[in-house]
Amino acid sequence: MEGDGSGDLGLTVExxxxxxxxxxxxxxxxxxxxxxxxxxxxxxSLDCGDLPPLESSPCYQNRVTVQSNYRExxxxxxxxxxxxxxxxxxxxxxxxxxxxxxxxxxxxxxxPVAVSRDGERKCFILLGVVGFETCVxxxxxxxxxxxxxxxxxxxxxxxxxxx
Length: 163
Known about the structure:
- This protein is an alpha+beta fold.
- It contains 1 helix and 10 strands; from the N terminus they run ββββββββββα.
- It has 2 domains: 13-108, Sandwich (Immunoglobulin-like); 111-156.
- It has one helix spanning 122-155, and strands at 13-14, 18-22, 27-30, 32-33, 40-46, 64-67, 72-75, 84-92, 97-99, 103-108.
- Strands 2, 5, 8, 9 and 10 form a 5-stranded mixed sheet that branches.
């Protein structure tokens, strides 16, 4: 039965259930089944329907690469519009067929905070440090200018006054 990982003639096809990514990332989906060598064809389809292959869709033009004789497909620079379920269909020599359960791709907006593995908030820390340093430099310049103006005004010779 289609959609349950097996096909009309019992070919079991497995693929990851879900892949999460942020906009701009790359997503790689793989498809495993029990056939070796090149006695099969693999087609990746959008929304697990009878649509044209994923890699020939205009939405994915120049963003899809396939590896391992189509057992693995990578979409680069994903967008939120790439969210959906993609299926791997396999047809083996001799008529055996199978379709995976589908991999749900969830693409979210890229987060503005860059969080490293150790939890540092690099973006905000960097912006905070640069902002603080800028304020200190401006304050020092203001103090320096004010003191120079005071010196000029205090030591400026006065014009002689006539009695």
